[in-house]
Amino acid sequence: MTTKIPKSLQAPVPLFDRLVDNNPRSDEEPTPLRRYNRDQLKESMHHEIEMLLNTRPGHLRLQELDEPDESVAGTTLFYGAHYFGDHDVTSTEGKANIKHLLAQTIARFEPRLEDIKVEINAFDRVKQRLSVIIDGTLVSGNIREQWSFPVSISDVEITKNESLAS
Question: What is the pTM of this model?
């Protein structure tokens, strides 16, 4: 017998997670996935944030528009984390700018995480990979809790310093 999870410990499943067919060869339709438990919610959010931060938007930047409008910043035109190469990662200011850009990107596209803070762990020059820790308040349905998790960001192309560790 399956243990029923109380609704207070469930969260709604995002649209794209509901549209995934985990068994495309089957002729039968599974029961629609409508609610996540806490662990499923965290797994979904971790996956979404990792995809977001590993996606680069086109070269168009909001500041380059004829009439910059913050309302377009959260659209698919600007989905992803911008290139960081123009920030001096050897400086405290450069690291702060990167952390701010990452937190701002997450806040725009992942509404289930609030009070977002980003800490930079390290930069792997050879693999061009930035290791960060995301910290925030997970908020979905009746679930509200502090949560911290690692994310690896690939193809970062920061070339000014081998390590970002403070």
Answer: 0.74
